[in-house]
């Protein structure tokens, strides 16, 4: 599971396997918050609000809240005090791609099996990694009513 | 930065050998320790049934589910039982996804 290191800061990720014709119509909403567990609620509320505006169904929105929470929690659960946490919500093509990053160096803790199970059932795709430059995640949620 | 409103409250009621914890709010890595300590404080050797009233739970993730798993183990080791009362559809769905619904009593 890897992702480009500029996935959050840069523009649309044209090197990704997910590049598509919709990339030119992509909009990005960015959130920057302290990397503290008490702010997880802000990240998932933002995701729910955006998904609701995009016409995601109630179940999709609820699933997204869980998936975003799990990814963000894994990224920041042992972050050092004072570190900022950035989340980019990329909108386009009936799907929401959410990318997060923080400057905490090193790989994130392994996902708990319960968290992994929830992520596999509430998202279409997810990845989580880290190196000396920081930690990153990428999460994709497609509108289920648009899934063929 | 101003303090955020406490996102989870736990009210405790005991009657006989039954302890009821009423949860209102959101259960995530920030608030899961609140529930964990509430369970630890409320359960004693005399507790036969621990009821978690989760009707007011607006969100739960894996950290919350893990506290429930821990509470279930605690009660099981004591020869008691754990009951989850009135889970919302979303809570029930996550319990089913993780298989926890097969191990705890849902009421």
Describe this structure in words.
The complex is a heterodimer of chains A (148) and B (107). With 148 residues, chain A is of the alpha+beta class. Chain A has a single domain (34-146), classed as Heat Shock Protein 90 (2-Layer Sandwich). Chain A is 29% helix and 28% strand. In chain A, helix 2 (58-76) runs antiparallel to helix 3 (113-122). The relative contact order of chain A is 0.22. Chain B is α/β, with parallel strands linked by helices and 107 residues long. Chain B has one domain: STAS domain (Transcription Regulator spoIIAA). Chain B is 34% helix and 35% strand. Chain B has helices at 32-42, 62-77, 89-97, and strands at residues 8-15, 18-27, 49-60, 81-85, 105-106. Chain B has a five-stranded mixed sheet with strand order 1-2-3-4-5.
Helix and strand arrangement:
The complex is a heterodimer of chains A (148) and B (107).
Chain A: E1 27-34, H1 40-53, H2 58-76, E2 84-92, E3 95-102, H3 113-122, E4 125-131, E5 134-142
Antiparallel strand pairs in A: 1-2, 2-3, 3-5, 4-5
Chain B: E1 8-15, E2 18-27, H1 32-42, E3 49-60, H2 62-77, E4 81-85, H3 89-97, E5 105-106
Parallel strand pairs in B: 2-3, 3-4, 4-5
Antiparallel strand pairs in B: 1-2
Q: What's the number of helices of chain A?
A: 3
List the secondary-structure elements of chain A in sequence, H or E.
Answer: EHHEEHEE
Q: Determine and state the CATH class of chain A.
A: Alpha Beta
Oligomeric form of this entry? Answer: heterodimer
CATH homologous superfamily title of chain B: STAS domain
SS summary, helix count of chain B? 3
């Amino acid at each position: 599971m890897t992702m480009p290191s500029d996935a959050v800061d840069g523009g649309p990720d044209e090197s990704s396997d997910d590049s598509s014709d919709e990339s030119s119509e992509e909009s990005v909403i960015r959130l920057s918050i302290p990397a503290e567990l008490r702010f997880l609620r802000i990240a998932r509320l933002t995701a729910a609000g955006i998904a609701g505006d995009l016409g995601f169904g109630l179940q999709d929105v609820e699933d997204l809240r869980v998936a975003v929470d799990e990814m963000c929690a894994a990224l920041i659960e042992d972050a050092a005090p004072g570190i900022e946490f950035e989340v980019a919500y990329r909108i386009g093509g009936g799907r929401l791609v959410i990318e997060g990053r923080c400057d905490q160096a090193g790989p994130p803790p392994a996902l708990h099996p319960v968290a992994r199970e929830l992520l596999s059932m509430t998202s279409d795709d997810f990845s989580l990694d880290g190196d000396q430059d920081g930690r990153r995640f990428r999460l994709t949620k497609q509108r289920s009513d648009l899934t063929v | 930065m101003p303090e955020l409103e406490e996102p989870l409250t736990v009210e405790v009621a005991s009657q006989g050998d039954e302890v009821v914890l009423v949860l209102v709010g959101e259960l995530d890595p920030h608030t899961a320790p609140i529930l964990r300590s509430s369970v630890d404080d409320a359960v004693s050797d005399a507790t036969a049934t621990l009821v978690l009233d989760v009707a007011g739970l607006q969100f739960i993730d894996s950290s919350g589910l893990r506290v429930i798993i821990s509470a279930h183990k605690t009660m099981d080791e004591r020869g008691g039982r754990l009951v989850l009362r009135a889970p919302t559809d979303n809570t029930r769905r996550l319990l089913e996804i993780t298989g926890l619904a097969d191990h705890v009593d849902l009421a």
